[in-house]
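Appendix B, Record 12. Input sequence as logged:
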Amino acid sequence: MFAYPLRNTSLVIGMLLLSVAGAPPAGAQGLSGADATALTNLLGAGVVGAPVAVSEIAAPAALLPLTPASWTFQVSAGPNQGATGTATLQPGTSVPWQFTAGSSTIYALASAADGSIVSPSEQDLGQGVLTQYVPSRPVLVPGLQPSAQQTVPSRSASPTSAIRARLPIPVR
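Logged structural output:
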């Protein structure tokens, strides 16, 4: 009698292992279906791996070092799908650093006293508008926890308007 329940348990465990082993693997970042296929087609097999545990941001400058750099990218969706563009990070003339994304936007970047990377202004080249943020808009903040955010009042101003905004920033 003892062997009968053990045999059934072994059979159930064996079937479970076979079903898991025979299941198609999850795609990029644990995605399945069309999203995983699209990423694999766009980036190539093996480029995006399984998700990894993340911890708080200890040093924003380690994630976004403010040093001259240039990246080439391909637009993956929208009206410019398939087009390539360039993003650059370089010293600015009137701001510490400028991050240029394509030919439409220039973001001013700076390091704050607490080690945060902040954006004091943004220039929309297509619209000819310069927006300044008071205080500077946080980009990366030390102590940022995954999925945590805090709302702080901020105000942005352009030559034609002053706008009150509530920007999410991480909880420390």
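The chain is about 20% helix and 35% strand.
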